[in-house]
Structure formats: C-alpha cells, structure tokens
Amino acid sequence: MDKIIGIDLGTSTTEASVFQGDRPVMILNFEHQEITPSVVGLDENGDIIVGERARGQLLTAPERTVKEVKRLLGTSEQISLGAQQYSPVEVSSMILAHVKAYVEDRMGEEINQAVISVPAYFDEIQRQETMEAGVAAGFTVERIINEPTAAALSYGLEHLEEESYVLVYDLGGGTFDVTLLEMFDGVLEVKASSGDNKLGGKDFDQRIIDYLVQRLREQQGIDITSDRAAMARIHDSALSCKLALSTQEEYRVQLPVIAMKNGEPAALDEIITREKFEEMIADLVERTHEPIHVVLSDSGIAADAIDKILLVGGSTRVPMIRRDIEDYLGKVPCALVDPDFAVAQGAAIQAAIISGQIDERTGIMMTDVNPYTLGVRAIHGYDDAFMSVIIPRNKTIPTTRKKKYYTSFDNQTETVVEVYQGESSSTKYNHQIGRFMLSGIPAKRAGEETIEVSFSYNQNGMLQVTGTIVSTGKEAVIDIDMLGTKEEQVDVSDWKSAELAGDYRAVIRRAEKWIRKNEPEPELEELLYRLKKAIIENDMEEADLLEDEIDDYMD
Q: How many Cα neighbours within 13 Å face the side chain of 302?
C-alpha cells in the first residue's frame, strides 16, 4: 500500500507522524517545527493562511483569523473570516490541506491516505465531519482513531510484553478524554471511555482572561470586551501566563497600552500567582472526576487496580492536574509518552497496522469500544420517543446484540426502525443515525406480531441494523458507517416550487421558526432538510413520516 500518515487534529495544535523503520517519527512543517498551530486566517490579499502565519496575525487582524475550530465540529455555527463565511468542516479541511502540503514537501512524494484522531467522546456527527474535512483536504481517511487509544498505542509499541491496566488521561486544548485499557500479549483492549468535549486548556485561558478583564474594569473603569484587538492581546497574555505558571510561582502581565481612556493610554500591570490561577480553575479540574468515575464504573475496574496513569495533552503540564489525579486516584501519574506527540505517533502506528508495516499477528493489535449508547425509538407506556437501548456504551466491539419488539396497534403491517445514538432516555435529545421501513407484517391484533431488531457493530466501525418479522422471517437491513461520511447534501432551496410543497409548508415554517428561536438544533435541521428533499422527490410516504417526526420533536 501507499504510505499512510497519522494526524492529530487538535483544538490548539495539529501534528503529523509517519511510521518509518520500526517506530513513528514526527514530520516537520514548513517552519521546521513538529507542532502547527490550529489557526486559519485570511491575509491582506484575501488568501488562506494556516499555522504559524495565521497565528502571527491573531493580534493584528483578529477579524479575519480563527482558532479552536475543533470545538465547533458537529454544530451549524458559521465562522467569519473577514467578509467570508465558512463551516467548521471547511476550516478544518484548510488545516488538514496545509498538513498534506507540508508532509508531501517534507517526504518528497504524494500522500493521499491518513488516519486522523478524534476525542474518544466525539459523537457520530463529529466523527463524520472530521472525516469530511479530511476528504475535502484530499485524503482518503483510512480510519478515525480515538485520541487516548492512539496515545496508548504509542506507549504499547515499546511495552508489548506488559500485562497491566492503563488509564489514559488526555487533557488537550479543547477536549478532555479518559480511557481505561488492558494490555496483555501485545493486545490493547479498551475497557471504557468517557470525557468532556467542552473542557480543556482553552477554558483555563478563559479564566485568566476573565480575571484580567475584570481587573481592568476595577482599576481603569474601562470595558475592553468589544475591542477585538485589545481582547486578542489579553488572550495572548493569558496563554503566556498559563504556560509560565507551569514552571514558576508567579507571572507578571504587563500591557502598557491596552486601550484608550479619555484620550489617554490605559495600562494593565498585574501579577498572577500559581495559587491564584489554581483558585480560578479549581471547578474545571473538578469536572475531570465524573468522566473518570464513569470509566471505572463502566469497566468494573477499581481505582487501586490501575497500574499506570498516562498523561497526554499539553494541559497535563499544569502542576495542579497531576496533584489532583494523585489525590483522586491514589496513584502518581507518569509521563511515559510525549504529551504533545503521543496521539499523532499512535495514529501513525495504526496507519502502519492498516498498511501492513506492522503485522497484527506478531506485533501490536487493538480492540475498542463504542463510546455512546446505541438503540431504537420505541413506545414505552405513553412515551412514543423512548430510547430502547440495544448496545450500551463502552461495550467492546465487535459485538452483536438483539432485542424483540411487538406491534403497537391492530392490523399494523409496517414499522419504521429508527436508530439513535446518545445517553438520554428520550430519542428527542439523541442523534438519529439511520432509519428504514420494515413492511409485510401480518395484520393481527396489537402485540401479536414480533419484530426482532439486531445490531452488529464491527471493528471497522460499521453498524449493521437488521429488522426481522419473526413469524415470516422477512428482513430489512441498513448499514451505517459510524466512521464514514454523510450522504452528499443536495440543494433543497427550491422546494417551494415542488408539487407537494403546499401540503407541508406549515410544518416547515413552524420548524424554521423553532430553529431561529432556540439553540442550534442539528437533529431538527437534518429532519427539515430531509423533508424538503422528500418534497422535491415527490415522496409523500417519506414526507409524511418526516412531518410526524418534526411535530414530535417540537412538542
């Protein structure tokens, strides 16, 4: 096979690695650095710039520069770069295209295949969008790999004979993951994963930013929150402060001319101690405990059975993090992998397994789990949006599980099997990832016919859902690529001119009004898109089903 590289697409930074000889090596970018800032901008000519050049204009041109876009994957939020609007997928693809360019320049050959890492707690939509970004950048994405699992691969390659329970604690710039693995005979078996996709070093920075902005209000009587250039300088100072406090007890923030007050320059001069910083972030550090508890509970492994705690992610350099882990788990964490490079190197190891450079029979191999619960929509009492669980979260894959359901009304001859992912007991708050019709049910009294639903989830991320009418053996099947790309979107803007438009105009208007008034609603937006598509395709049966789903969602 052609070379496959590993990429750690991070919130704050991005790295690439390739397996050479018997180990992964980091690939240097155009600036001869291993780390590339995950920053994208437009230069003065309107051209896209990525990495160090983009980061260099965060202070001077914040209105046409963006960072930390990874946190927006899976949302409908648009990103402004000057007068241009981009989706999180488009901006992420710019970062990955930049990686592709410098990798090819450094290696002197075309590179078209990659393994890309994601937080273990990314849901199916976020994983799909990560893959879409890779495809848009020109890669064939061979695998999406969980970041803690990748870090464990990086460690495991050098410890093939070890038998131990390893907890990977991964606190990056924007996300937190914790994964418990068992290592034995060259096998890495993931036992459980959990995390928080809205917790990371960025949040530590924000606490310093908020503090400095408040001190300016108190000392100078000015509010700089609407001054983009001033806030960019505060952001930069907060990051420098956080990094410095990992190795020293205090840091002085000095900004002689942060803003103007009554025509005179206003300055900021503030000393922040490590103790003060730790007070600022105490509740954020506390939030890491619940995912750890979930992992220990789901895996059935007690804290005192853990042999090693591996620290991954730049934010684990904060001294308070290490103390807190030791206090909470009763074990000193260890730095046996490079926190900045372990994920990219692990992705490169996975790439080498795929390409055959590493033989799974004699080298290292890995099993994984599904990080989210999978199930179907069912009727439960008076609740017609009940999440009936078929594969609970943190079950080792591959796995096959089945469940039986019964007809819900007299003479029912068909049913729609709707597949969901998420932890809520109501499908309204989970992600629908597939649906299909099972028809040909014999017309009998309610409850007299049985439908068996089977979920088969394999190692390559394919979920096969089968619905079977038990009395006749008739089946309907859908294959869902949990790591794959979304169905290509079609233009539905002209739905109003379609023959069926009048029948569904009212529900579409209500849904669009709902979306404008509420937080981003990706599931409702997807239902609305599919309804407009069905209208254009003159598919009344599908449109009726979607109309009911949209009404149920808004009830």
A: 2
What pLDDT shows up at residue 346? 93
Tell me if 208 sits within 8 A of 280, measured CB to CB.
Answer: yes
* Amino acid 367: pLDDT: 78
Q: Give the pTM.
A: 0.76
Angle at which helix 274-286 crosses helix 319-329, to 10 degrees, equals: 50
Q: Could you write out the DSSP letters of every residue in 14-61?
A: EEEEEEETTEEEE---TTS-S-EE-EEEE-TTS-EEETHHHHHTTTT-
Instruction: Provide the pairing of β-strand 187-196 with 365-369.
Output: parallel
Distance separating alpha carbons of residues 427 and 88, to the nearest angstrom: 26
- Say whether both 448 and 411 belong to one domain: yes
Render 140-189 in DSSP notation, one character per residue.
EEEEEEEHHHHHHHHHHTT-TT--EEEEEEEE-SS-EEEEEEEEETTEEE
Binned average pLDDT, 10 residues per bin, the chain of 555 residues: 90 95 93 96 94 90 92 90 92 97 96 93 86 93 89 83 89 91 85 90 95 93 89 92 95 91 88 97 97 94 94 93 96 88 94 84 73 91 91 88 94 92 90 88 94 87 89 88 56 85 90 75 76 90 86 78
Looking at the structure, do residues 124 and 193 belong to the same domain, yes or no?
yes
The one-letter amino acid code at 70 reads K
User: How far does Cα 389 stand from its chain's mean position?
Assistant: 22
The pLDDT assigned to 48 comes to: 95
465 has which bridge partners? 455, 478
Give the residue numbers spanning the domain of 29.
4-199+288-369
Predicted local confidence at residue 490, as pLDDT: 66
The reported pLDDT for the residue numbered 288 is 96
Nearest of 300, 305, 241, 299 to residue 268 by alpha carbon: 241
Let me know whether 193 and 293 are in one domain: yes
- How far is residue 279's CA from residue 271's CA, in Å, rounded to a whole number? 15
**pLDDT of 514:** 82
Domain containing 128 — which CATH number?
3.30.420.40
CA distance 6 to 26: 9
How far is Cα 511 from Cα 143, in angstroms, rounded to an integer? 36
> CA-CA distance, 16 to 101, in Å (whole number)?
11
CA–centroid distance for 480 within its chain: 18
Closest among 71, 201, 127, 90 to 520, alpha carbons compared: 71
Q: Is the dihedral of CA 324, 325, 329, 332 positive or negative?
A: negative
Which token pair is 108? 């002197």
Domains held by the chain: number: 4
Residue with tokens 């009940």: 386
CATH for 448: 2.60.34.10
